[in-house]
Amino acid sequence: MGAINGEAFIQRIDKLGTEIWFDGAKINGLLSEHPHFKGILQSKASLYDLQHDPNIKEEMTFASPKTGEAVGLSFLQPKSKEDLYKRRKMIQHWAAHTNGIMGRSPDYLNTVLMSFASSAELLRNQKNCFPEHLIKVFENARDRDLSFTHTFITPQVNRSQVYIENSKLPIAAKVVGETDQGIIIKGARLLATQGGLTDEVLVFSVGRFLFNEDEAFAFSIPSNTKGLSFICRDSFLGGDSRIDHPLSSQYEEMDSIVVFDDVLVPWERVFYYNNGDAAEEFFEECSFHAFAKHQVLIRQIVKTEFILGLSQVLIETINVREFQHIQEKMSEIIIGLETLKALLERSENNAALDQWGYMRPDVTPLKVAGTLFPKLYPRFMEIIQLIGASGMITLPTEKAFHSDIREKLDLYLQGATKTAIDRVKVFRLAWDLSMSAFGTRQTQYERYFFGDPIRVASDLYKSYPLKTHTDKIGKFLNLD
Amino acid sequence: MGAINGEAFIQRIDKLGTEIWFDGAKINGLLSEHPHFKGILQSKASLYDLQHDPNIKEEMTFASPKTGEAVGLSFLQPKSKEDLYKRRKMIQHWAAHTNGIMGRSPDYLNTVLMSFASSAELLRNQKNCFPEHLIKVFENARDRDLSFTHTFITPQVNRSQVYIENSKLPIAAKVVGETDQGIIIKGARLLATQGGLTDEVLVFSVGRFLFNEDEAFAFSIPSNTKGLSFICRDSFLGGDSRIDHPLSSQYEEMDSIVVFDDVLVPWERVFYYNNGDAAEEFFEECSFHAFAKHQVLIRQIVKTEFILGLSQVLIETINVREFQHIQEKMSEIIIGLETLKALLERSENNAALDQWGYMRPDVTPLKVAGTLFPKLYPRFMEIIQLIGASGMITLPTEKAFHSDIREKLDLYLQGATKTAIDRVKVFRLAWDLSMSAFGTRQTQYERYFFGDPIRVASDLYKSYPLKTHTDKIGKFLNLD
Amino acid sequence: MGAINGEAFIQRIDKLGTEIWFDGAKINGLLSEHPHFKGILQSKASLYDLQHDPNIKEEMTFASPKTGEAVGLSFLQPKSKEDLYKRRKMIQHWAAHTNGIMGRSPDYLNTVLMSFASSAELLRNQKNCFPEHLIKVFENARDRDLSFTHTFITPQVNRSQVYIENSKLPIAAKVVGETDQGIIIKGARLLATQGGLTDEVLVFSVGRFLFNEDEAFAFSIPSNTKGLSFICRDSFLGGDSRIDHPLSSQYEEMDSIVVFDDVLVPWERVFYYNNGDAAEEFFEECSFHAFAKHQVLIRQIVKTEFILGLSQVLIETINVREFQHIQEKMSEIIIGLETLKALLERSENNAALDQWGYMRPDVTPLKVAGTLFPKLYPRFMEIIQLIGASGMITLPTEKAFHSDIREKLDLYLQGATKTAIDRVKVFRLAWDLSMSAFGTRQTQYERYFFGDPIRVASDLYKSYPLKTHTDKIGKFLNLD
Amino acid sequence: MGAINGEAFIQRIDKLGTEIWFDGAKINGLLSEHPHFKGILQSKASLYDLQHDPNIKEEMTFASPKTGEAVGLSFLQPKSKEDLYKRRKMIQHWAAHTNGIMGRSPDYLNTVLMSFASSAELLRNQKNCFPEHLIKVFENARDRDLSFTHTFITPQVNRSQVYIENSKLPIAAKVVGETDQGIIIKGARLLATQGGLTDEVLVFSVGRFLFNEDEAFAFSIPSNTKGLSFICRDSFLGGDSRIDHPLSSQYEEMDSIVVFDDVLVPWERVFYYNNGDAAEEFFEECSFHAFAKHQVLIRQIVKTEFILGLSQVLIETINVREFQHIQEKMSEIIIGLETLKALLERSENNAALDQWGYMRPDVTPLKVAGTLFPKLYPRFMEIIQLIGASGMITLPTEKAFHSDIREKLDLYLQGATKTAIDRVKVFRLAWDLSMSAFGTRQTQYERYFFGDPIRVASDLYKSYPLKTHTDKIGKFLNLD
């Protein structure tokens, strides 16, 4: 089978009949025809088509070590810097196709699963751990080009530092039973982006499990597994018009609460369970951080280029290039872009083979990028708003341009270098990126991609090697 | 007649039949029943009803010096500090009713018109100036409780510092002719908030007119004047549900481009025209800045209290009060609120009678507030997003709570101190204020209320008296 | 006796013979002639002379309720708003004389002692508490115009949140014994500004005393008490030239570690001891916060005016007024100044009588100012550096102007509106305020005036009333 | 001769007898024994000794293409990436020796001169241009290991945008005559760091010369040339104690005004004169920006490592590692450091041969670093002050530790992990770096290294290629 195209993807998803709740109703009919899901599914399909684009097919696939078929390169377990550069190229292709706007293009989760599988040995010979299941799930995904979402956050009932859940019914998903067929899961997880829109859902655990080892598990199951359902948030799709809603009409990905109603996870799907130490160690030491952050950074660079281009087009549209504060704001975006690119290069320059022979990018520059981008992105959105000023509000609809008042719009809304309709397109895009419900959700998404920014910053400090530097101070001052 | 109630307001607006274009179509039928306008019109009606609320009627009206009838207190021309405090009280009532969310509650424009009329003497004996027309229009408005919008910005074709319009057809509205009945206006103005939803539209000019004196004019005409039309931007109404869209369902005010298609403005409606010097001097020296900024600051204080309360409710809902960075963020809002309140007090403490006997608040602290709030408000919105975190995304719809999955929502979405539905209400409000298309338009609105923030800051510096302070340095250093 | 003049102050301090260690040696000879102390003592003397300046004497003194003599108005226990305004006026006079640069002008500690005495009733009938001693010490200070320093911070060995001192010898000053004559104190306190340069030292405790009740005490003793010594830090006096070191030559106040080497504190000097609860309650509820913060804010306003004047003189000197980023920076200082003034007015507007009949300023706006200024001041210093640019470095000495190269300096260092010598004076002042060792110590001093800025912000939040605001949200959303 | 050692450097400088004015007097006697210059000269001497350190000599020198002798590697004109890496290594050695504190270590100006010589062909066949003089001066410098300062800024009389000098006597240095021996220069330049402390002074022009072509020249002359003199600013040397003044005792570099009193510059020393176009083109297109920014960034990275180490030692000294705001501040320094390192790598990765065969680092990432560091450095200094808090003030002198009170200091000033003396050393260093007059001059120096930060940011924007990015927007939106 190997790398699929868009049509195959759509057919497979439509066939699943996953239980999805949207706006108080269970979805019936084909998902790909649902007004709120057709846009994102078509966009995903067009991404899969890239794998068969003759111009780049070579850069998008590789021969499966198992079947020899051409499979998606995001599943490639890199063993050399060359492999790493290939991965970068492939990620750039995926990202460029959506200008970095689609947060969960398939390569992200393929990368996550690849990193897990490449670190499966960490689970070897540990209680309740099944590395071979993990490898099998990975190989199956690779050779059939399955798509995934993941979920690892527990419901936000109480974020206090010392909270212990004491509800009678499980809130956070837990192992509530165990049979000869598998483990039984009850409770919820949130927030799965594209939850329900993928072949499978990858469930794993992050954090500490001193008091609740029954929350320490990892597995992957098909989205249409019995007892599994997805509850969607409100949709941020603005409408179908590509002019009025250039982004949300294509890229509204949806986020869902994942509900496990006594879901049976078959043994061959379980990677580990009821082993907090193994769960923590696995998450800490596997190559997830290196590979996932590598993918994310590449996408964010493409997105930043999009932001930079858009900002400049705004500037030209209303001719504000000469203002010094505009120049300073643009220099901020440029500094951000160049910094991200440089950090990516540094992570690749300093990549090294891990203990199992996989070429990991250096995680430190990637962590730095992961701490920086959540601050840069909201500022970029603010800069766009500050450049656009009142133009961000003066937004007639596409229909108005097809009505009797077109002539007036053409006259009064023209830009310095643009016709009225082009000007409106530009401002609509700026608005959809930074001010629509779709856009602000993207801001929140980028801000919290790797978790609470405060914690991310603390972690960077705690994990950073400082001894060489403090030793130099000791020597300079002749300290005892 | 005097101060009207909500019903009278609605009837009058419905009767006008103003030419309004929305989403490519001219509005027919009653405006108050149009899905995109009924919310804001009902909210405005409820504001007018306040004038007849027996508990506060005394604080909302005063006896017209002309008719003796009880008229709206926002039309009061204050002659003492007592009058000023009365005005503050009245503005607080209006603002509290919408928590400061409605930017253009009627008192704003009533205040603007009052300030113009109170400075009419500036126009006395100047070429093409008619102070008595201004006074008459004001008295008519006061005694009939007319509602207004205003418009003073020209289209944003080209914001370069040296731009001169050279289109064949007027883009910015201009005087294109003059008859014995009045002046003829052609071109556009933007962006009138609630444009089309008021009895009249007040048109005046801001800025320098060295090269285009034909843009220097001021008048007020009924919204349904022949040749006058309003082109709406896209609507930011999210929907009718008070739970899903607690703010936009009530307060989406709409902004419009105002088009003058050879509109005849009768002489008795013209305040001045074709006199750039008079226009500049009038805008510079009239009491507009003092009284409008006084009204705006009072509303912004009420809004800031709403933001503070909401932030605290968010904190309690997910129990994050103990985090130090949360405490620091809350202290930012508190500092902002107390600062605004103090600046308001200072402007009233230092109020003084102007040359025509009206008690003007001190404009300097008001200018400071007007420079500060555009920076504070976006930061407040960011703080709400940072407190809410992923909860700002986990937003099911009201309908979901009326469906079979209610039980699951109740379980998984409960807050530390709230039921699931209450928790969702709280986060929905936080989202509608800071992240919906309605909310981000509010941010842009507050950011640009008194114009380009860069220019506002420069103006504060240029107008601030510094000599006392520089003299002290000279003395301290014995400078020549 | 009553309010003293400068000469009397100098004589009294010289006579004390306090044990002060400076740069590795014990000071012998007259303190007022010591190169590192004469500047500050003369500046203090000139402040005392203000009390006898015929133009303002009335505003600087009042009749002692005990002796009827004219005593310093900083000792006035205000019973009305009039009294509060009198206090403000007096503080402004003191502050204006040093442009707010002297942090510990005598009125500060006089105010502290006044606030303690005015709250003495809090100590009534509590274990180990002696309210009448406190009142007596206060009356004696008032009627003899004694000067004070204070010290309430323990040595910064370990700032960890759970640190418990376990040194064999006391590090933080403790009660180590008790005789019929008084209590015995051993250990150190830091950092007393002007420690050793005042008649007495006021020692009291701040914070929690769960495990170390022996650190909970308060008393005042003469600086020359046996066993008491002051260890100075390095001096930040740059030199005697008023041109080269316009500030440090006059206002270098010195900070000292206060060492108690088995110091006997006579009973009549002890306010309380070994009573942690009383100490905490006293510090929490006495009027110290209200009155001290009132004095400090008035001084900081005067200092901010000085900063604003200096910045403008810098701008004029090198003619950079037209640059927009300069205008924006100046608007920042203006916003800061107006905000501080407004907060002061608000604290006075809302002043109220406390339970013992004293008119306390509202502490909330003062707390806000106390949270704000530590952020504003360092930014102001940065703005001065950004305006001055390379001119902050191009600093020849006064001597160079009295040498053969004067002509060259006159030519090459002239400013746009200033002679070379005046230009150098201006930049020297800017440098001494923001970049000399004296200046940066001032920055640190203002930043930490009321303690760790993080904690100050948290306290503001924790003590701020929020219920009214959260109730409104509950009502708006119809929460349960 | 080739690469010299420290002793040779000192002897040469002492022998010059350059005319230097310090604190109103002309310096007589040996410069290396002058209290205010001996520290920096010894530090420079120790840098030259590095060239003969057997461990790194190979990395510090290369064989002169002319003499075959080992000459300083900072003079190497790189022709390959290998050469570039060699240069990096050498710069790191110089920088590490002073922890990046010495801004003008000899490699900086050697690099500048090397870059000029490597671009000499730009001057070929242009009016009044002498590329062969430039090459000769460079080769002489390389083979004799001469040291340089440079000066290119005109006096800051009036920084207005439209200022035209109209003094009768030249203020900015100008060509005032021309003989068969050379050109005559009169006027001043500022601010030459280490002016007077080097063998030669390199004078060149930056900027536009529409109205004053007589200011467009470049040459290098010995410091003791007749008519040339250096007027020092005040010294920021705090004292000789390495404990009290660990940095200023070694690295106070001094800045001087350079005065030309009818100085004759011999023709063989003139690179160009009276040719504004050539001057502008040369400065714009020569490899100065690439190579100088490369050297500067490497030094700034070393300095940032020093800052990071010092901050961590401070944290350990008072045990504040657990505070979250401390962790966040440290993450800021780490982000800064990693970003600078990544930008350096990127500039080297993308280095390319210029038209004359020299391997230039990519200037864009270097420009980004040059825009970023002036913002990072002052923030780093603020972070140090915020970590150190009151400890930055509690600074006894070394002498105090050699006096009778040592025991008390040992007890009361001990740190959590340090003896009192070590603790004081650490805080003294933090103070000397961030708060002494030496430290704040360093801050201003880093802030303005490549000129006005506002202009640097504007230049980054104006020179950055944007078309690829705007084209993508056009394509995405189907713009005309």
UniProtKB/TrEMBL annotation, chains A, B, C, D:
<keyword id="KW-0503">Monooxygenase</keyword>
<dbReference type="GO" id="GO:0050660">
    <property type="term" value="F:flavin adenine dinucleotide binding"/>
</dbReference>
<keyword id="KW-0560">Oxidoreductase</keyword>
<dbReference type="InterPro" id="IPR024719">
    <property type="entry name" value="HpaB/PvcC/4-BUDH_C"/>
</dbReference>
<keyword id="KW-0285">Flavoprotein</keyword>
<dbReference type="GO" id="GO:0016627">
    <property type="term" value="F:oxidoreductase activity, acting on the CH-CH group of donors"/>
</dbReference>
<dbReference type="InterPro" id="IPR009100">
    <property type="entry name" value="AcylCoA_DH/oxidase_NM_dom_sf"/>
</dbReference>
<dbReference type="Pfam" id="PF11794">
    <property type="entry name" value="HpaB_N"/>
</dbReference>
<dbReference type="GO" id="GO:0010124">
    <property type="term" value="P:phenylacetate catabolic process"/>
</dbReference>
<feature type="domain" description="HpaB/PvcC/4-BUDH N-terminal">
    <location>
        <begin position="6"/>
        <end position="271"/>
    </location>
</feature>
<dbReference type="InterPro" id="IPR046373">
    <property type="entry name" value="Acyl-CoA_Oxase/DH_mid-dom_sf"/>
</dbReference>
<keyword id="KW-0274">FAD</keyword>
<dbReference type="InterPro" id="IPR012687">
    <property type="entry name" value="HpaB_Deino-type"/>
</dbReference>
<dbReference type="GO" id="GO:0052881">
    <property type="term" value="F:4-hydroxyphenylacetate 3-monooxygenase activity"/>
</dbReference>
<feature type="binding site">
    <location>
        <position position="193"/>
    </location>
    <ligand>
        <name>FAD</name>
    </ligand>
</feature>
<dbReference type="InterPro" id="IPR036250">
    <property type="entry name" value="AcylCo_DH-like_C"/>
</dbReference>
<dbReference type="InterPro" id="IPR024674">
    <property type="entry name" value="HpaB/PvcC/4-BUDH_N"/>
</dbReference>
<protein>
    <submittedName>
        <fullName>4-hydroxyphenylacetate 3-monooxygenase, oxygenase component</fullName>
        <ecNumber>1.14.14.9</ecNumber>
    </submittedName>
</protein>
<feature type="domain" description="HpaB/PvcC/4-BUDH C-terminal">
    <location>
        <begin position="280"/>
        <end position="477"/>
    </location>
</feature>
<feature type="binding site">
    <location>
        <begin position="452"/>
        <end position="455"/>
    </location>
    <ligand>
        <name>FAD</name>
    </ligand>
</feature>
<feature type="binding site">
    <location>
        <begin position="156"/>
        <end position="159"/>
    </location>
    <ligand>
        <name>FAD</name>
    </ligand>
</feature>
<dbReference type="Pfam" id="PF03241">
    <property type="entry name" value="HpaB"/>
</dbReference>
<dbReference type="InterPro" id="IPR004925">
    <property type="entry name" value="HpaB/PvcC/4-BUDH"/>
</dbReference>
